[in-house]
Structures are given as C-alpha cells and as structure tokens.
Amino acid sequence: KKANMAIDPSFVVGKIDPRIYGSFIEHLGRAVYGGVYEPDHASATKEGFRQDVLDLVKELNVPIVRYPGGNMVSGYNWEDGVGPLKNRPKKLELAWRVLEPNYVGTNEFATWAKQANAEVMMAVNLGTRGVDAARNLLEYCNHPEGSYYSDLRISHGYKQPHAIKTWCLGNEMDGPWQIGHKTAEEYGRLANETAKAMRLVDPSIELVACGSSNVDMPTFPEWEATTLAHTYEEVDYISLHQYYGNPTDDSASYLAKTLEMDRFIETVIATCDYIKAKKRSKKTMYLSFDEWNVWYHSREADSKMEPWSVAPPQLEDVYNFEDALLVGSMLMSFLKRADRVKMACLAQLVNVIAPIMTENGGPAWRQTIFYPYMHVSVFGRGVSLQPVVKTPYYDTKAYTDVPQLDTAVVYNEESEQLTIFGLNRHLEDDLTVTIDIRGFESYQIKEHIVLENNDVKAVNTKDDDRVKPHTNGNAKVDQGKVTAHFSSASWHVIRLE
Ligand code: AHR
C-alpha cells in the first residue's frame, strides 16, 4: 500500500507547549515508595530517591509531574506530609485502600521534581476539603516568608518557596467513585470559590478545572459546560482523562482508538468555545489532558488485593508492543491540536501504569511505552505543522474509515530540525510513504528511528528488552521528496535537518 504526505512550513497548527509531555506520580501502589523513593536502595541519593529512576525520568525529558493524586488527593490532608518524619501520621488511604505512611510529602516531592528537572503540577483536595486547605497549601508552597504557613515551611527546612505555578482544582470530581464526589453545579461553585481565594494568595498561578473522567461518563459534556459556566474567568484549563485497553483482543480496533480520542478533544474544545460565546468572553480556554495511557492489564489482579498494606503492587500493567503503538498515536493526537492542548500527563511515571518499572531493591527498566513517549518528548519540541495526508483507509470491527497512516509533524525553529512521527497502524499491510517536504528542500535525513516487532504482544522485563527501537529505517530524500518503508504495525521517527 502507498501513502503520500505534503509538509509546508507555513501550515502551522500551533506552538507546542512542552508541558504536553508531562507525567504523573500519585501516592498509589509502588509509584512513590519503591518507585521514586527507596532510601535503602543501592542507588539512593542522600534524600532517599532512587538515582536509577531519576536517570530514566531525565531520559524522558519530562517537563512537569502531577502530584499527589489522582483519586488519592480527594481524601488527602497535606499537613500529614510535612514536618518532622517522626510526627507524620500513618493514615488509611481510602481511594486505594492502603496504609499511607507519609514519608514523602509536598517538600520531598518538590525536591525530587527539581532533581528530575521537572515542574510540579499540584492537585488540591476538593473532595473532603475545600477553599481553606487549598489556600493554606498554596501559602505554604509559594509565599516567600512572614506568614504562618510560609514560616511553617521555613521551619521545616525549606527556606526557598517552591514556586509551583500549575494547580489542579481537585480530581475527577464527576466520578461516583471519588471521595467527596459532586454534581457539576456543586463542583463548579466550589472550584470557582477556591480559584478566587488561591489567586488572592498568588495571582501568578495557573488553574485547571476538572473535566470529565472519561468520554463515556453519562454527564459528559454537560459537566464541562456547567463547570465552565461557573469558572470560565477564573481558570485557565479544563482537564481531560482517558485510558484505553484491549480486553477483547481486537488489536485492529485497539490501534484505531485514537479516532475516539481526537473526537473527545474536539468536543471539549467545542464546549469551551460555546461557553466562551455565551459569556461574550475574549479569553480562550485551554485543555490539560492530565491523565492518559493504556490501563487494563492489571485490573483483575488489583481486584483481588487485600486492603491496608503499605505500597503494595497496584496498577502494575506490563505493556506490550501494541500498547507502545497506541501510546505513540495518543501523543500525536495532542500534537494535532497543539493550539489548544497545552498540557498532558502520561499517567503514570513509575511502576503504576508506567513507562518505568522497578524492583524493590533491584533494577529499574524501560517498558515498551517508554520509547514512543521518549521520542515525542525529546524530538517533538517547536511548532506542530499540519501535513496534508493521503492514506489508505480500512474498517475494523469497531470502526470504519480508519486511516492506515497516522502522523504528526514538528518543526523546531531554533535547531531548524524537522521531525515526522508516523504510525502504520495496519496489522498486515506494509506502507510506502512518500513525503513532499516543500519549503525544506535542502533538508537531509539525520536519523530514521523505528520501533517494530513481529509479535504485538511482546513485552520487556527486567532481564529482556524485547521491544526497543533501532535506527535502521530506510528513509531517504530525493529531489525534495522523502520516501520510507513502514512495515505493518510499526512506529517511526524521521528526523531531518
Ligand atoms: O491514574 C490512576 C487513577 O485513574 C487516578 O487516581 C484517577 O484520577 C483515575 O481514575
């Protein structure tokens, strides 16, 4: 089969906010304890962080990490996680039904993020708490000194404020499973009042209101409309969350799931713009896709877990090759709407539905999904270009008119590099791709990275990296045209300069 593309430097979708390559660490399973923090580990830093994990996080070039939840934040008292370790309470953590020892809290996480070269995206508890706890936490984190909470932070050994810019107003408050679940009216009012108070403490912050927990929520998209009707002038972003899985082993349909994701993004944009019109507002609302990933492999094991242990293995999905392909496709969905999707967090980062796995006391390794995430995070910086694409289409059990070639293009104006990301999502048919790079005539191939495997179910383990990229792709340029072979079910990064 054949596909054609045309790329022109003037077809700009928008500037890419690097924060679309964010991730997420929740106090859940072994994400924190045994993941980022393990004081007895051979690689532990003086603060108790695993250096091997930090090194892998840096390889991914993660610009922002959401913390501390997730569902967990809706029952979290931030005060439990600050001050002398010996005074920190062990609490029942109700979202995941574990014991939370609070060895890591706000200050430790801010220190970890700094070492990982990442910003913190902090979530406040709007489940069991509200305006007061949120404004106090912000004062604790960001106020320089001379007030009760800023001086408390200083007394805890953190003279410099953490200067956390991005704050989430709760988590998945539309979900009946959420502790302190609310109706859209209740949440909209509370989020707006919390936003107002937080802005009085620190007007420089950016705020994210909770959108729907996934596209299938019965209240979607009315939830967004009502929430934004209350909060439009006080918040900067509305959140989107979505996880996919392949429980029926229909890989053809699975690899087409991003068609749904694209529609989800378009519907949220339309809803934002509807409220903008109703309010006669000049402000544009942006999207924070702050939870996204594949999540289904571990669900059965988790349903059998005994409650109230400390940091048990939970949500430890072992990812296969087809999951990596879908993750690449999801990342391209953000690039396609880089004008409106300004933040996104791969949920999560270590051990819990994560690109990085660890063994307690043992090694850390890269899951299959590590690679497309790294490729797009490292090379997808600059402006997103809109390619004109002609591709074969096909039908699957669940979808019609699935484009065989999925692609996104990034031009980095500073380094003058052009990067073409591409997925041949067909399970049997190879594709010859021809790309007209008008406007980039003198460009030559720098590298053609390929992730391919003849077993879509292949996984990586601590001893065996079965799924990893190679750089033997055959892309070549001739008279302003790139040609490349994309074998069936394969992920590509073609870099030109
Ligand atoms: O990332 C795992 C969980 O998924 C988060 O805690 C929650 O927000 C979502 O339902």
UniProtKB/TrEMBL annotation:
InterPro entries: Alpha-L-AF_C, ASD1_cat, GH, Glyco_hydro_b. Pfam families: Alpha-L-AF_C, ASD1_dom. Its EC number is 3.2.1.55. It catalyses: Hydrolysis of terminal non-reducing alpha-L-arabinofuranoside residues in alpha-L-arabinosides. Residues 290-490 form the Alpha-L-arabinofuranosidase C-terminal domain. It comes from the Bacteria. One of its GO terms (molecular function) is alpha-L-arabinofuranosidase activity. Keywords: Carbohydrate metabolism, Glycosidase, Hydrolase. GO terms for biological process: L-arabinose metabolic process; polysaccharide catabolic process. Pathway: Glycan metabolism. SUPFAM superfamilies: (Trans)glycosidases, Glycosyl hydrolase domain. Homohexamer; trimer of dimers. Belongs to the glycosyl hydrolase 51 family. PANTHER family: ALPHA-L-ARABINOFURANOSIDASE C (PTHR43576:SF3), ALPHA-L-ARABINOFURANOSIDASE C-RELATED (PTHR43576). This is non-reducing end alpha-L-arabinofuranosidase. It comes from Shouchella lehensis G1.
